[in-house]
What does this fold into?
Amino acid sequence: MELAYIPSPSSGVLYLGPVPLRGYAFCIIIGVFVAVWLGNKRWVARGGRAGTVADIAVWAVPFGLVGGRLYHVITDYQLYFSEGRDWVDAFKIWEGGLGIWGAIAFGALGAWIGCRRRGVPMPAYADAVAPGIALAQAIGRWGNWFNQELYGRATDLPWAVEITSSADGREPGTYHPTFLYESLWCVGVALLVIWADRRFRLGHGRAFALYVAAYCTGRFWIEYMRVDEAHEILGLRLNNWTSILVFLLAVLYIVLSARKRPGREDVVEPGVSDGDAASGGEADGADEAGEGVEKDEAEASDGKKEADGAGQDSKDGAGSAKKN
It folds into this structure.
């Protein structure tokens, strides 16, 4: 009897006609588009202008890619700088290898620059894009499936992933699909943040902090399942320790922020009033102005009629006095 499993693609390259596109890069690109799309909807719902999220993402995304690659290369330097390795491979980002911790840290730096240029509060922007980032990670993890990497221990479970490549020295077989576990977890994190944000009206960066804390919780147990080479400290992989530290910082931020600045920001983007549609603010203002003019004209007309009526009453009174 043949066991069920998730087959791996025979090639990590997709072809759009004659144009080759690596599956890893394709997943990253799709994830970025989803994050910007959802972030824009949430930003506009909070009173911001349409397009602001994309404008800031122009800064955040490149910074995030550089930071993610730097974290990966630094923490796995032996893959690029040990004997027999080619250091030029450190620049081949399309072959896989992005550290989420570096991506978030440098991406936040890029977003801060973009927010400063647009004059919007960084915490509010982070809250708006948090669920989208989680969904981008969920999509991006499928790039590891294309590259046949980041899988766990050997297993014969029906949802095991089949590994046919022996590039990393592992025997071909079926293994825990940790990329799938993390992808599903990130979808759950996105839904959690959206629900909590609606239920508790999170503000001042707390929705983003919740995303960070929830992601770290899942990343800890998923990282524990992985069997690829990694640096360890006191029996735990480096990314496990990073998850613990970042989780504690995120929870601490939520607690301190809730005490210092409860509630949500009243204004997330200067010049845009609450509830204004991004493209309809001026039109609404013109309508209100027009209504005001019409109202003033109507009131003036009524006043004239009242004055005329008063004058007529005076004439009638005078005529009556003469008759008497």
About this structure: The CA atoms of residues 14 and 21 lie 5 Å apart.
